[in-house]
Write a structure and sequence with these properties.
By secondary structure, the chain is α/β, with parallel strands linked by helices. The protein has two domains: 194 residues, Periplasmic binding protein-like II (D-Maltodextrin-Binding Protein, domain 2); 154 residues, D-Maltodextrin-Binding Protein, domain 2, CATH 3.40.190.10. Helix content is 38%, strand content 16%. Helix 3 links the parallel strand 1 and strand 2. It starts with 10 loop residues before the first helix and ends in a 5-residue tail after the last helix.
Length: 364
């Protein structure tokens, strides 16, 4: 999935005006009632009869979706195809195709789940693991449900940095360069600034401490704002990078597990996630519902963990091979989700302005 270059969360406001103009909930025939009073047994039976599920933004290579699609095929005879695209593109596709839908289910960034529900693009379905999912990670009616999380982490090339930082304070006191990525377009970079704000007395309502933190690094000539890529890490062009934990772990293992150190910053970090949204016009609605059910099952959560994505169900018992892919749980003691998503959305425009005025102009 092109999530690393996903259209910035601030684009949500633009989307609501441009991509969804003219959307009328009352004029279209939908699958809105298909989930009513259906048992999991009924859903499974109907899903087998449908025989296929078509996804968007859920390719084999991201978060080990491959394992889940293979399981759905072997256990239920459901075939799968995917078209990779960004969260914004997924919702635009749902809206534009209407009753001619070619996509049944998608995986979108946390801010796009509520937008999809607001615009009436989704088919609600609460899985049998509903009570195991934190309130912040689900829509009360089941229009979207986060399946896995990402937490801002540090990845350090030990060939370049003798004492890998464990905290934001360590970075501040260091003499190496720090890569944050493009805050003007990448959600990973934006959440990196928010995590720094959390660590320095700010929050989603006050992003200034995070901007100040990176402004200081920029003035010291220590900030890199170009995209963080596997090839750059492999070539030793990055000392320390601020990235999602699942990206950091994936980079580490693809290059050299012993060469890189990956940690969640000690003072504070931010947790976000990706949510499944089922197209209200899905041609295979029950197969999409069964896919969501499986994603949140023990087996599905283990598949995600094997792709370095941290399961949303905290009480799930992971097999040892899946657990080994993740960082220790105690590293996440000071990591928290955004508490006021509306404030964070509204603060995005402020972040864009401050980043250009305070940080980019000082990058050397």
């Amino acid at each position: 999935m092109k999530k690393s270059s996903m259209i910035k969360i601030a684009a949500a406001g633009i989307l609501s005006v441009s991509l969804f103009t003219g959307c009328s909930k009352g004029e279209e025939k939908t699958n809105a009632a298909v989930s009513s009073n259906l048992s999991l047994e009924d859903i499974t039976k109907n899903a087998k009869a449908e025989g296929e599920v078509n996804s968007v933004g859920m390719p084999d290579s991201w978060a080990n979706w491959k394992g889940t699609w293979e399981d759905l095929n072997s256990k239920y005879g459901i075939k799968h195809t995917d078209t990779d695209m960004s969260s914004a593109e997924e919702l635009a596709k749902f809206e534009s195709e209407k009753e001619n839908a070619t996509a049944d289910i998608g995986d979108v960034g946390a801010s796009f789940g509520p937008l999809a529900a607001e615009k009436g693009l989704t088919l609600p379905y609460k899985t049998s693991h509903w009570d195991d999912i934190p309130d912040w990670a689900k829509d009360k009616d089941g229009n979207w449900i986060i399946g896995y999380t990402g937490t801002i982490a540090f990845i350090t090339d030990k060939n370049n940095v003798k004492n890998p930082p464990k905290s934001w304070k360590d970075i501040e006191n260091g003499d190496y360069k720090v890569a944050i990525g493009d805050v003007l377009k990448a959600s990973q970079a934006q959440f990196g600034v928010l995590a720094a704000a959390y660590a320095n007395g700010g929050d989603e309502k006050n992003i200034q401490p995070g901007v100040d933190y990176f402004e200081k690094l920029a003035k010291q000539g220590r900030l890199q704002t170009n995209d963080i890529k596997l090839t750059a890490l492999e070539k030793g062009e990055v000392d320390v990078a601020v990235v999602w934990d699942f990206n950091a772990l994936g980079y580490r293992d693809q290059i050299d597990k012993d060469r890189f150190d990956v940690v969640i910053p000690e003072e504070a970090s931010v947790v976000s996630g990706y949510a499944t949204v089922i197209n209200k016009n899905a041609k295979h609605p029950h197969a999409a519902m069964l896919a969501r059910e499986y994603i949140l099952s023990d087996e599905g959560q283990a598949n995600l963990a094997r792709g370095y994505a941290r399961p949303i169900r905290e009480n799930v018992k992971l097999p040892e091979d899946a657990k080994a892919k993740l960082l220790p749980s105690d590293m996440y003691n000071n990591a928290k989700p955004v508490e006021d998503s509306k404030a964070w959305d509204e603060g995005m425009s402020q972040l864009m302005q401050l980043w250009q005025q305070k940080v980019l102009m000082n990058v050397k």
